[in-house]
Amino acid sequence: MLAGGVFLVTLGGSPAYALLGVGFLGTAFLVHRRRPLALGLYGLMTLAALGWAIWEVGLDWWQLAPRGGVIIVVGLWLVTPWVRRRLNAGPVPGRRAPAWPIAIPLVVAILTAVYSMTIDPHDVAGTLPEAKVADANLGNAIPDGEWHQYGRTQYGQRFSPLDQITPANVNSLKVAWQYQTGDVKLPDDVTETTYQVTPLKIGDTLYLCTPHNWAIAIDAATGREKWKFDPNAGLNPDRQHQTCRGVTYWSDPDLSADAPCATRVYLPTSDARLIALDARNGAVCESFADRGALNLGQGMRYDPAGFYYSTSPPVAVGDRIIVGGAVNDNYSLKAQSGVIRAFDIRTGALLWNWDSGNPDQTAPLPPGQTYTTNSPNSWSVFSADPDLGLVYIPLGNQVPDQIGIGRSEAVERFSSSIVALDIATGQVRWVRQTVHHDLWDMDVPAQPVLFDMRKADGTVIPALVGPTKQGDIYVLDRRNGEPILPIHEEPAPGGAIPGDFTAPTQPVSSLTFSPPPLTEKNMWGMTLFDQLACRIAFHQYRYEGRYTPPSLEGTIVYPGNFGTFNWGSVAVDPERQIMFGMPTYLAFTSQLVPAAEMPPKGDEKASEQGLNRNEGADYGVYMGPFLSPLGIPCQAPPWGYVAGVDLVTGKTAWQHKNGTVTDMTPLPLPFKLGVPGIGGPLLTRGGVAFLGAAVDDFLRAYDVTTGRVLWEARLPAGGQATPMTYTEGGKQYVLIVAGGHGSVGTKPGDYVIAYKLPD
Predict the structure, then answer these.
(1) How far apart are CA 510 and CA 473, in angstroms?
(2) Sign of the dihedral through C-alpha 744, 748, 754, 756
(3) Dist. CA 648–CA 650, nearest whole Å
(4) What pLDDT digit, counting tens, does each position of 503-513 carry?
(5) What pTM does this model have?
(6) Listed residue (638, 641, 652, 394) closest to 511, CA to CA
(7) Beta 159-160 vs 681-684: how paired, if at all?
C-alpha cells in the first residue's frame, strides 16, 4: 500500500493510499511491540479514512465499500480479545488493552456503511406524462397483433398497440411455450457468436433466424416448428461475428395468396448471400437472383471470404429490398465497400447503389467497375418512410477506426452519421454527422426511430430519434435532418499522432446520456489494492475527457466503443411521445502500435478486445475495456441504467440502475449495481416496457411511467435480443430469444420463449 501509494503521488494522484500505508505499517510496528497505542492509531486511521472516503464519493455504498472494506476487516481482527490480550496494558498478567479506541471508530464506520445502503445517489425518480396523443402514426399499417419488421414497422419504434398486459397484471405472466432451435455455439465458432434475433409475426406464424443463419418458421400459439432452412453458410475463422438479427418479410401484391413465393422471407447469411424463401414452406424462390441467392460480394475490388456479410435484416420498401453490410473492424485496409444497394425484390436486379466513398454515382455500377474499397459501411438496421420516399441509414466508419490519416473528403463527410437516401434513386437527401473525424469507433449503431412529434402549440413534425454510442440522442426533422432538439458544438481535445488531426469541436445534442468525465475518484475495485492499481493506471493513460485522441501511450475512451447505446436502439411510444432506453457505461482503452513494432501474426482477430492489426496501415491498436487486475471495470458502478425521456421537452423523467451481478460473479449474488447490457427494449400501449439485454440472465417488465421493475423471469441463457409481442387466439404473448452474446460472455443457448397471462 505504501509503495503503490507513493507511486500514485508521483503521478499526481491522491496521497491517501500512501498515508494509509504509513498507518498500516505504524499499527503493525506497535502490535509487534505489544503496545496498546496500536488500537488508538488504527482507530484514528479508520476515522480519517472514513472522512476521506465520504469527501471523495459521498454516501455511495458501492464506492465506500472498497475504500473501507479492508480497513474494517483488519480493525475487527484487532478488536478481538485474543489480540487485545497480547497488547499488555500494564503489570497485571492477561489484562487486555481497552477496546474503545478502535471499537468506537469501527462502529461509526459500520453505521455509516449501513446507512449508505439505504441511499441511491444515482437514482433519478420521476414520472413520464401519461396523456396520449390521438391518432399516433405507428408506421406502415399492420394488424395490431402482428410484428412485420425488425422494429415492428418500418418506423422502428419497437412499440406495440397491444394493451392486455398492464402494470396491474404483468406479474402473472407465465411461460406459454418454449422452443429450442438446435443451433448451438460450436467449438470452432468465433468468440463473438451471438443470438440477437427479434422474430417477426405474420398471420399465425413466427419467422426468425439463428446465429448460423438457419431460417425457421414456428407456430405462434404453440411454438411448434413449421419449417427450417439451413443455407449451409459454414464456418470461417475470419468472420468477426457469427450472428443474425432478423429476417425480412414481404408479400407480393401482384400474386394470389396461394401462388409460390407470394409471400417471402429474405435471409441474410454470414457468407454474404441474401436468400429468398417461400414464407409458407421455406422453399427457395429460384426466380430471385441466382436461383434464389443474391451474392452480396459482387462489385467489390477485394472480396476475401469472411470479411463482409449482412448481420441485420434488409428493409423491404415497395418493390425493392435495400441492403447494407458489416465489414470486419480493423482487419485490413483492403476491405469491402460499405455500399448500400437497392435490388428488385422479385428478381434481385440491382436498381441503385449508394457508396459513401463515391456518393454521387448511384446508378447501377457498370460492368468492370468496383465500389470504393473500405468506404464507411452500415451494419445495423435501416428505417424507412415511404410517404417521404426516404430510407434512413445509420452509418459507420472506415477501417482503421482509430486512425484518420488519408481519409477522403467523402469519407470525412459521411463517416459516423445518419444519412437519408431517396428510396427511388439512392441519392442523398440529407446527412447529419454525429462525430467529426471519428477516431473512437463511434459509428452510429442503432436503427433510427421515426415518429410524428406533436409540439405544445399543436404543430406536428415528422421526427427521427437517433441514439449514438457516445450517448447523444439526436431528435431531428426527418424531412431534412434539421434538429428539433438543439445541437451545439463543444471544443474537443487535440493532440493526434503525427500525420493525423482531431476536429476542433464535436457536436453535442441537448438530449444526451453522455456521462461526466472520469476522475481519479471514479476509480473502483473490490479492495483498496485493486482500486489503487486502477488509480495508477488512470494516470498512466492519456485522458482529457470525451474524444481524447488515440495515442502511443494509451488513451481512455469514455464512453467506450461498446456504446452508451448500441444496435438495440431505443423504444418510442408515439402516442405518449416518450422514449425508453438502456444507457450503458463502460470505459475502454486504446493504444496505437506502430506497424514496425507489431508482434508476429498469430491467431488473434480484430474485435472489441485485444490486438487489432489493421493490415496495411501504419498502426495497429490494442483495445478493450478498462479493467482492474481482478478483471472488473476500473470505473465505479453503476454501469447500466434504464431511462425514460419526454421527447417533446427533451427531459429525462427518471433513470434507475438496471440489473444485478448475479451472473457476473462466482456466487449468484443479487446485488443491484446496475450492469452493462446490449439489446433493445419493447414498449406497449398497456404501459409496460420489456427488456432483457443486461448481463444477468433475466427478462424484466417495467412500469413505463415510473421505470419501476414490475416482474422478472429467469432465462436459461443470456437475453441479448430485443423482445417482441403479438396476439394469437385473442391472447397477448411476449417473446424473447435467449441465446447469449459472445462479446459480453453471457451463457449461450438456443431458446425461444413466449409468455402470456393465465387463461
Answers:
(1) 8
(2) negative
(3) 6
(4) 999 999 999 99
(5) 0.96
(6) 652
(7) parallel
